[in-house]
Amino acid sequence: LLRQERELCRQTEMLREVAGTIGSSEELDDVKVRILDGLARIVKYDTASLQIIRGDHRTLLAGRGFNTETATRYLVRPISKDPLIKRIVQSQEPLILTHPEQDPDWGLRSDTVEVNSWIGIPLIYNREVIGLLTVDHHQPGFYQEEVRDALVAIADEVAVAVRNARIFDSAQRRIRELELISVVTDLMSAKLASEY
To answer: What residues does 133 pair with on adjacent strands?
Structure first.
């Protein structure tokens, strides 16, 4: 009991640290690296992915432990064609597969043969799934329900950080566009003034 209490305290402190680290950057490139670094401090994994969802599509924002080019082929397919991910998005609940090959929605492919324990966590912002965190391990049954609460806590922080970073990136892009318009306007005004 004492060991469990110590582990819970350690995990709580680590969650606080990771949440602070994730939220300390506004740029999406920084945020995605911090997310996967922080995730590794909370749960061991062989591969992990951070995916962004827009409508029926998802894109790989960041990944660790796998060939992103190969993985992208499967991650960019529509959610409606991926029953496992569709289940997570519709339920807005994490899914832990201690033996993925036993799940009827698990797509056994050459690149998933070594995946023997898997977790998919929806990133929810304003009651909408905006992304997905996935982690897997080669050891069968590695992930159990105990990690669920920790991952849900980090997923809440990740959803806010990703949303804020997307807004920040969009604002930065808009500022650059406006600066360019201003330069072009100034050049055109100078040209017109010199003609008169």
So the answer is: 50, 121
